[in-house]
């Protein structure tokens, strides 16, 4: 009997400290923001665009473009002296509470990025709803508002299309990179690593891309493409790199999973395609007579995807020579990326962080002038090892058998 009373008393005591549902929010009272776009008005205020999901137009038809029931998202815009004020101002246009827990994308206009992004990320980090795993992109040549208003096929929500395109493009091509809010904040707070963020641009007619007919045609009037890497110095955008130079950045950052490298052979610049299937980059710092230096070693393995000149793949000497040509092509991309970063005087590779980890005492005297003094003069030694593991189902193309 005493044991039962003790258990009952214990349960009653536990009940007194339970919080219950004091902070509950009904789904019908929430506006789920999938993406946020940040622009500037002519008078210098922030213009924030909210891409809000229309649940009834998305559920059950995620693979059918715009759908016949209406557009999958609604766009709301508000202005303010800061992001918090703009978010509050949006309540005058929305019949629901803005909810950021499902925000997966932040689009920043090129204009805002050039002025500086420190204040933006401070506001995002302080918001208890906002996730640091949300991706960040720079709207290149267009406003963030325009980028979020484009309706996209396949993925009904344009924010999801941008995110997936970034992920798959990085994985199989390696000239763009998906960067999260938390990673940008870490880079901004580091003296030895500057941020890089992928760009997104609109190809086609912007006015037509905002209409539902854009996703009802086999060839949309406007598309969203990811293109180029925005390089920052401190919190300001100072330039862009694209193409093979952008891939050179990802080689150094050890972000290359798969890609295709063109090999020169017999005085033909586009002689063969080397498909990289795995790669690994290691970076080390050295100190000699008080001067830092960096060594970058890249190891790549891949297959021959196609050939445009006669190559005897049964001959080990030719295979070895092709590997050397692939190494030269990769090294050329990496060296070009380093030159562009030095020209902009911004360490986007994190070489400073490598020096700090290896030589913390010496780093104390260099960190304040790293980007302007030490990094532009930094000696960087690049070595590449490339291996051809497979040549496909034929050792000699049918084109050259006649």
Automatic annotation (TrEMBL):
Keyword Signal: yes
Protein's recorded name: Spore gernimation protein KC
Biological process annotations from GO: spore germination
UniProt organism field: Parageobacillus galactosidasius
Residue intervals of the Spore germination protein N-terminal domain: 24-201
PROSITE patterns: PROKAR_LIPOPROTEIN (PS51257)
Keywords: Germination, Lipoprotein, Membrane, Palmitate, Signal
Localization of this protein: Membrane
Membrane topology: Lipid-anchor
Pfam families: Spore_GerAC, Spore_GerAC_N
């Amino acid at each position: 009997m005493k044991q039962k009373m003790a258990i009952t008393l214990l349960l009653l005591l536990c009940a007194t400290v339970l919080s219950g549902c004091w902070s509950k929010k009904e789904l019908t009272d929430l506006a789920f923001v999938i993406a946020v776009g940040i622009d500037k008005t002519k008078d210098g205020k922030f213009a924030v665009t909210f891409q809000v999901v229309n649940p009834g137009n998305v559920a059950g038809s995620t693979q059918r473009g715009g759908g016949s029931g209406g557009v999958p998202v609604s766009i709301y815009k508000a202005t303010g002296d800061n992001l918090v004020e703009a978010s509050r101002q949006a309540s005058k246009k929305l019949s629901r509470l803005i909810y950021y827990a499902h925000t997966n994308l932040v689009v920043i206009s090129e204009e805002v990025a050039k002025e500086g992004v420190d204040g933006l990320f401070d506001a995002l980090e302080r918001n208890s709803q906002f996730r640091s795993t949300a991706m960040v992109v720079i709207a290149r040549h267009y406003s963030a508002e325009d980028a979020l208003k484009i309706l996209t096929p396949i993925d009904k929500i344009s924010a999801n299309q941008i995110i997936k395109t970034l992920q798959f493009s990085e994985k199989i091509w390696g000239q763009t990179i998906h960067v999260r809010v938390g990673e940008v904040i870490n880079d901004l707070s580091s003296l030895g690593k500057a941020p890089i963020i992928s760009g997104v641009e609109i190809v086609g007619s912007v006015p037509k891309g905002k209409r539902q007919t854009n996703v009802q045609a086999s060839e949309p009037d406007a598309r969203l493409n990811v293109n180029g890497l925005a390089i920052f110095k401190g919190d300001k955008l100072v330039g862009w790199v694209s193409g093979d130079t952008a891939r050179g950045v990802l080689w150094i950052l050890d972000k290359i999973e798969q890609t295709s490298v063109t090999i020169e052979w017999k005085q033909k610049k586009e002689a063969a395609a080397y498909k990289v299937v795995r790669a690994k980059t290691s970076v080390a710092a050295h100190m000699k007579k008080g001067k830092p230096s960096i060594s970058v070693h890249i190891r790549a393995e891949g297959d021959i995807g196609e050939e445009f000149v006669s190559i005897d793949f049964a001959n080990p000497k030719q295979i070895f020579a092709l590997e050397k040509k692939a190494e030269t092509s990769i090294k050329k991309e990496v060296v070009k990326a380093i030159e562009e970063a030095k020209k902009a005087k911004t360490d986007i590779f994190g070489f400073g962080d490598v020096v700090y980890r290896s030589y913390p005492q010496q780093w104390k005297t260099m960190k304040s002038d790293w980007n302007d003094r030490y990094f532009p003069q930094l000696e960087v030694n690049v070595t590449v090892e490339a291996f051809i593991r497979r040549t496909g189902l034929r050792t000699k193309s049918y084109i050259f058998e006649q």
